[in-house]
Every structure is written in C-alpha cells, then in structure tokens.
Amino acid sequence: DQAKRKPLDAKVMDVYSQITTELIKAHTQFRIEEKAKADEMERRRTQRRAKRSVRRRRRQQQQSPQRRRRRQHYCIFRSGPRLFAPTPFAASASTVSTSTPATLALTVAA
C-alpha cells in the first residue's frame, strides 16, 4: 500500500501546512472572540444584579419606619394594638385563645 502511494511533493506539503496554520489561526481568533463575548455577557449580568440590589436597598431606605414595622408578622396571641393573621390558618386559630400545642404550631407556621 505504501509503495503504491506517491510521496507527497513539496508543493502539496507546503499548501497543506499553509492551510493548517490558517485554520489554527482562525480557530484561535474565534475562541478569543467567543471568550470576549462570554465575558461581556457575564459583566452585564453582574452589573444588572448589582443595580437590582442597589435599587432594593434604596427602596428599603425610603420606606417609613412604621411601614417597615408593619411588614413583620405578629403572633396572633400577642396582645397589642396590631393583631393580624398573616395566613388563613392563623385567622381560624385566632378565635382559639388558649394556646394548645396545635395553635402554637400554627403561629410558628405563620
């Protein structure tokens, strides 16, 4: 089999090597560009995330202290001016004034 094949002459080898080098160059370029694109996307994503967190922080600062306090869930069994049940569960339990283990569990769940 080896004897039948003609040895590749210098010109063919030259062209072959040229093509391979071009391919390698092109591929490296492509990889560099892809990496740059990926980095850019990642940067945008992190920026967006940072912006979002900043927005969230600002929004929290703007809220008046009373409003912030109201957002905490109060225990239904606590005596106080503001008693409200955050969940339907607790709403039904609020009629039961004695704190049995079951109702305690409900307040914990709420």
Description:
The protein is mainly alpha-helical. The protein folds into two domains: 1-62; 72-110, no CATH class. The chain is built from four helices and no strands. The chain has helices spanning 10-62, 65-70, 88-93, 101-109. The termini are far apart. The mean pLDDT is 73. Residues 32-44 have a biased composition (Basic and acidic residues). Residues 45-73 have a biased composition (Basic residues).
Order of helices and strands: HHHH
Mean pLDDT: 73
Q: Approximately how much beta-strand content do the residues carry?
A: under 5%
Q: Given the structure, what is the number of helices?
A: 4
Shape: elongated
Core attributes:
110 residues; mainly alpha; 2 domains; 4 helices
Can you describe this structure in just a few lines?
This protein is mainly α and 110 residues long. It folds into 2 domains: 1-62; 72-110, no CATH class.
